[in-house]
Write a structure and sequence with these properties.
The complex is a heterodimer of chains A (138) and B (952).
Chain A lengths: L1 H9 L7 H12 L4 H11 L3 H10 L12 E5 L2 H5 L6 H8 L4 E5 L11 E3 L2 E3 L4 H10 L1
Chain B lengths: L18 E6 L2 E6 L4 H7 L25 E2 L18 E3 L3 H15 L16 H8 L26 E3 L9 H10 L5 E3 L6 E3 L17 H5 L5 E3 H6 L4 E6 L8 E7 L2 E7 L12 H5 L14 E2 L7 E3 L2 H19 L4 E5 L5 H15 L4 E3 L6 H10 L17 E5 L3 H4 L1 H12 L8 E5 L8 E2 L2 E2 L2 E3 L6 H14 L5 H7 L2 H12 L5 H8 L3 H13 L3 E5 L1 H4 L4 H14 L9 E4 L6 H6 L6 E2 L3 E2 L3 H11 L11 H10 L4 E5 L3 H4 L3 H9 L3 E6 L11 E4 L8 E4 L4 E5 L11 H11 L9 H11 L8 H7 L2 E2 L43 E6 L24 E4 L1 H6 L7 E6 L3 E8 L7 E5 L27 E7 L5 H13 L2 E2 L5
Parallel strand pairs in B: 1-4, 13-37, 14-15, 14-25, 16-17, 16-21, 17-20, 21-22, 25-26, 26-27, 31-35, 32-34
Antiparallel strand pairs in B: 1-2, 3-4, 5-8, 6-7, 9-10, 10-11, 12-13, 12-27, 18-19, 23-24, 28-29, 29-30, 31-36, 32-35, 33-34, 33-36
Helix pairs in contact in B: 8-25, 9-25, 9-26, 10-19, 13-16, 13-17, 13-19, 16-17, 22-24
Classes of the chains: A alpha+beta (138), B alpha/beta (952).
Chain lengths: 138, 952
């Protein structure tokens, strides 16, 4: 548990340290699992329930490591209006078991949808070919 | 009529004194400022539908069912989160609101199982009520879509079940756990439609979670999602009786909810002034012992303790007991007889036992279990302040700025008060929390647990309380932090100056005493400064203070500290002994000590004695009688021959078990009056079955001097309330007692005891409770004492020289053992071991520091032999850094362990309160029980044989 202790120590003294800690744990360990929740709760003098409540609220925090690359596809109202639903079967077929397709609701680019995100990179005006290519390159 | 829940006003009461006038549904009313519209409507009998609101927790505004219309306000605000304003005009029932509410209800019901007829909450369900209130006739959404049905129930907690299917995720349980209990064990997992209540992480169920099973969530739940298993089993209650819990000194008020003679559940009463609607796992759930198969309901006798018991009728048992007592009295004199009153029994029962001993047996050989817990409190506070009692009510903690906890573990031993203390420590509504100082050899939960962190923890060496408190006084006096105005106005100046000189001596500095106390001087100095300068300072203490050779000195050192800092006589401050048993205060008040009549008046005082002699028509002994330990000594010497013990198990609870056994075995007649064949009964000749607190009327007095009614909710299984049994025995001894009800005994107590002068059964029933003194000066009682001056006149500082105990560690016994309690068990465990509470704590464990464990080759969970100069026992080890190296800790709840086999007969210099908290011990690996344990197990088995013969 050295790494979690290190991450928590990094944010010591900060107001509201839980979310930044969880982001770092997710980024560095690939998941915020039960053991991590328990350790973080102990170090921050919170209950396991409090930490779990926060972790489970945000989809970005994964209970288990998943080494697959991730493509986030927006399926909110604006992107639906611009036809994202029709692209999904092809994207999923391209992903197979190798890539994880995550549904998100709004990437903030409604006028230029359908949109997707890989890491910190945003991709707009996707059609089937563009999205499939994105998935294949991911 | 029949069963009704206690009214729920939806949101908590406002404490404001300014009132606001508004109109609700055409009716004008005035309520305190800050009251919600929902609560205001409820006070005039209105009923705004609600699901996420309940008056034990703050409003949340999530269910959207309590919408109202307010003139001049846009939209339909939620009545729970909308405070009243002057001149406000509110409408709670309009066609528009009905339509909105029906729409909301449809969504709730669209995925709620409609199995109302077979549901355990049928007719006791707020969701059902709300559906009826809004006139729900149809649900347009059907049940084919996504739903939450078919989820696995969590039955892990022995007392309540969680059925997620029935849950509407109103989060009342989560908020009750946060706000009321302060454990924060629950959360909402996920979000949106997939939200569900979770007890911790996905790896947790209710039992493995941080839940302490206080029941606040069950009480808060509007449906049957969280429901007592006893309600599932027995059905909805049909009537309820308000009574007082018989566990710890907090004295929670409960509604005993009944079906016929069957107790269905105990629900904390929101109007209870000690608990304010809260409860713990013991009072709320651990009442199953009342009907446990071990309970004895028939009197039994035997001629000698190696014989089996013989069941007899009451008449034969009482005659047999009285004959033996009379014969012994004739042969050996009155002083060969004695009795022990119980802090578990009512004031009335206790009063009668001491009356029987003094007036019937003819000696003052009466003592009580307070001897072994809070007798130093009585002595110390009487000497310094003039009253043998704590100075505050529990509400006082809400006004504290610095809380000093010494030798107490409230989260385990006084959990309901601990929840209130923790709420003050966490701070609330923008008001910062109080600061906390903990003086304890062990890192108790209050030192660090979620959202609680002590500013200072002074992990002292057991037995050095006086040195630590004197060092704190040294800092306060030498650094000029005393409250001179308070001292000069309220205290004896000569005594103060003597004391100030004493504590100022360099040899009492934290630096010099560090060698003895092992408390870092800088930490101690900081704690002392904080206590003296941090605002309202309150001291809470327990048996870690009293159960020492210097117990009385420590109590007086605490009183000195409070006086020196001016922390007496107003809310938020004071000296607060947390009493162990439900009626320790009352048992002491009732004249249970060998030297005192009720109201703490010495037996040698002729005027007082005459008062009792005239009232009782007997002649009373002017000489103080024997204390428990002296009775046992005298029994071994052959001068003390018979004892009547009501509701106490001295063999398990008193120190040096072998000595107790020897004393009991030497007596000609031991009468045990109890629910169970307890350990003491192994040495008894007469067993008189007792009644539980559910089976009797009377009063208990809690740690805040609050006298509260105990009410009979079912007939005694043994046939008699305990005071009736004492009366039978008294009359068989030739006394002529004719009490028809406990209230008549209370009237006698009030007649003979100045501090109880204004107490009557009727007044207690009307007011709910009264805090003594209740007399001409304080007609309605006294929540805070010493407000305008100390009861003794001027406060008296006492020089408290630190004298190390004679119990010393050495090469053979290098560790110090200290003992305590755990949340789920109570005292010797006679009740709680006979309930599901054993799920959490099936055995006593020995806590030991990892270094000490490693040095001895002991692993967590391994068996160890614990030995002292007095005896030895075996138990399993829990390796933890809660205790410091050199210190070990255990509980004394289980007779298999008999922790008191190892404790010594050293005791407090003033009161003989045993030194349970310091025993030099050695701990070594072991592979089985000790000879004592095996012999004792044999004895127990032999001694509990009963020949079931038909009673005459």
């Amino acid at each position: 548990m050295k790494t979690i202790d290190d991450i928590v120590a990094r944010h010591a003294g900060r107001e509201g340290p839980l979310l930044p800690i969880l982001h770092d744990v997710q980024a560095e360990l690939g998941a915020v699992d039960t053991a991590a929740e328990t350790r973080i709760a102990h170090l921050l003098n919170l209950t396991r329930a409090e930490v779990h409540g926060v972790v489970s609220f945000y989809h970005d925090f994964r209970p288990e490591r998943d080494p697959r690359p991730v493509v986030q596809v927006c399926r909110a109202e604006a992107c639906q209006a611009r036809g994202v639903e029709a692209l999904i079967p092809a994207a999923e077929a391209a992903a197979g078991g190798r890539v994880r397709i995550d549904t998100v609701y709004c990437l903030g680019l409604c006028s230029v949808g359908p949109n997707a995100r890989i890491g910190d990179d945003l991709h707009a005006r996707l059609d089937e070919a563009a999205l499939t290519a994105l998935v294949e390159r991911a | 009529m029949g069963y009704e829940k206690q009214p729920d006003f939806g949101t908590p009461a406002s404490g404001a004194t300014v009132s606001v006038t508004l109109t609700i549904d055409g009716r004008e009313l005035s309520v305190p400022e800050g009251t919600s519209v929902m609560r205001a409507a409820a006070t005039i009998g209105g009923d705004i539908p609600k699901l996420c609101a309940t008056d034990m927790i703050k409003s949340f505004g999530s269910c959207r069912l309590c919408l109202v219309e307010v003139d001049g306000m846009r939209g339909t605000p939620a009545s729970c989160t909308t405070p009243v304003t002057d001149g406000m005009v509110v409408r709670t029932q309009t066609p528009r609101l009905e339509k909105l509410r029906r729409g909301v209800m449809e969504l709730y019901i669209s995925h709620h199982p409609l199995d109302c007829l077979t549901c355990s909450a049928n007719n006791d369900c707020e969701l059902q009520d709300a559906a009826a209130d809004v006139g729900l006739r149809d649900v347009r959404y059907g049940y084919d879509g996504a739903h939450h049905l078919g989820q696995k129930p969590d039955l892990s907690n022995p007392y309540f079940a969680f059925e997620p299917d029935k849950c509407i995720v109103c989060s009342r349980c989560v908020r009750a756990c946060d706000e009321v209990q302060g454990t924060l064990a629950l959360t909402v997992d996920g979000r949106g439609f997939s939200s569900k209540i979770s007890a911790g992480t996905t790896a947790d169920d209710f039992l493995s979670s941080e839940c302490v099973s206080c029941g606040a969530c069950v009480q808060a739940c509007p449906t049957s999602a969280l429901m007592e298993k006893s309600v599932k089993e027995h059905g909805k209650p049909e009537r309820s009786v308000v009574t007082t819990c018989a566990y710890c000194g907090v004295g929670c008020t409960f509604r005993a909810e009944m079906r016929g003679e069957q107790l269905v559940r105990m629900v904390p009463w929101k109007d209870g002034k000690a608990n304010r609607g809260h409860s713990c796992v013991k009072g709320r759930f651990a009442w199953g012992y009342a009907n446990h198969k071990d309970r004895i309901t028939s009197p039994m006798i035997r001629n000698s303790i190696d014989q089996p018991w013989r069941e007899v009728g009451w008449a034969e048992a009482i005659a047999h007991a009285a004959d033996r007592l009379k014969n012994i009295r004739d042969q050996y004199g009155s002083r060969a007889l004695g009795g022990i009153t119980s802090s578990r029994c009512t004031n009335e029962e206790t009063f009668l036992v001491q009356k029987l001993v003094r007036g019937g047996f003819g000696s003052n050989n009466v003592d009580t279990c307070a001897r072994v817990c809070h007798s130093p409190t009585g002595y110390g506070l009487k000497t310094t302040f003039g009253t043998s009692a704590g100075t505050q009510d529990f509400d006082s903690v809400e006004h504290s700025d610095v809380i000093l906890v010494i030798g107490a573990n409230p989260t385990d031993a006084h959990p309901v008060f601990a929840s209130r203390m923790k709420r003050r420590l966490r701070g609330q509504d923008g008001r910062p929390g109080a600061k906390l100082i903990v003086i304890d050899p062990r890192r108790i939960d209050l030192v660090r647990s979620p959202h609680i962190e002590a500013a200072h923890h002074l992990p002292l060496q057991p037995g050095t309380n006086v040195a630590v408190l004197t060092a704190m006084a040294h800092v306060i006096v030498t650094e000029g932090l005393t409250d001179e105005a308070f001292i000069h106005e309220r205290c004896e100046i000569d005594a103060y100056e003597d004391w100030a000189r004493f504590v100022s001596d360099e040899k009492h500095s934290p630096e010099v005493l560090e060698a003895v106390t092992r408390v870092p001087a800088t930490e101690l100095r900081a704690a002392a400064r904080l206590f003296a300068t941090g605002g309202n300072g309150a001291i809470y203490y327990g048996l870690g203070v009293t159960e020492h050779s210097q117990g009385s000195s420590t109590v007086m050192a605490i009183a000195n500290l409070a006086m020196a800092t001016g922390n007496i006589g107003r809310p938020g401050v004071g000296v607060n002994p947390l009493r162990g048993q439900n009626n320790v205060q009352g048992a002491c008040d009732m004249g249970s000590f060998p030297h005192e009549f009720s109201g703490y008046r010495h037996v040698s005082d002729t005027e007082t004695r005459n008062l009792f002699e005239t009232d009782w028509g007997v002649t009373l002994d002017a000489e103080p009688g024997l204390r428990i330990n002296n009775m046992l000594d005298a029994a071994v010497d052959g001068t003390f021959r018979a004892i009547y013990i009501q509701g106490e198990d001295i063999l398990q609870s008193d120190p040096d078990t072998k000595h107790v056994a020897e004393g009991l075995a030497a007596m000609d007649c031991v009468i045990v009056h109890d629910l169970f064949l307890n350990e003491t009964a192994n040495y008894a000749h007469v067993f008189l079955p007792g009644s539980t607190f559910l089976e009797k009327d009377g009063t208990f007095t809690n740690a805040e001097r609050r006298i509260q009614p105990v009410r009979r909710v079912m007939d005694p299984a043994n046939g008699y309330e305990d005071w009736e049994v004492t009366q039978l025995l008294a009359n068989a001894m030739g006394l002529d007692w004719n009490y028809g009800h406990a209230s008549e005994i209370l009237a006698e107590i009030a007649r003979l005891t100045p501090t109880f002068a204004g107490v009557t059964w009727q007044r207690l029933c009307d007011a709910g409770s009264l805090q003594w003194p209740v007399n001409d000066q304080f007609p309605d009682g006294a929540p805070v004492m010493h407000v305008d001056g100390f009861v003794r006149g001027k406060g008296h500082f006492v020089v408290t020289e630190y004298v190390p105990t004679d119990e010393k560690t050495g090469p053979r016994f290098p560790l110090l053992l200290t003992t305590g309690r755990i949340l789920t068990h109570y005292n010797v465990g006679a009740q709680t071991r006979r309930t599901e509470n054993s799920t959490w704590h099936p055995e006593d464990l020995l806590e030991m520091h990892p270094t000490d464990a490693e040095n001895r080759g002991l692993a967590d969970g391994g068996w160890a032999k614990l030995s002292s100069r007095k005896g030895e026992t075996t138990l399993r080890v829990k390796v933890t850094d809660r205790v410091a190296p050199g210190v070990v800790y255990t509980t004394f709840h289980h007779p298999e362990t008999q922790a008191n086999v190892v404790t010594t007969d050293y005791s407090d210099w003033a009161t003989n309160c045993p030194e349970y908290k310091v025993t030099a011990v050695q701990v070594m690996p072991s592979n089985g029980p000790t000879d004592w344990q095996e012999d004792y197990a044999d004895l127990t088995e032999r001694s509990r044989r009963i020949n079931h013969e038909p009673a005459e």
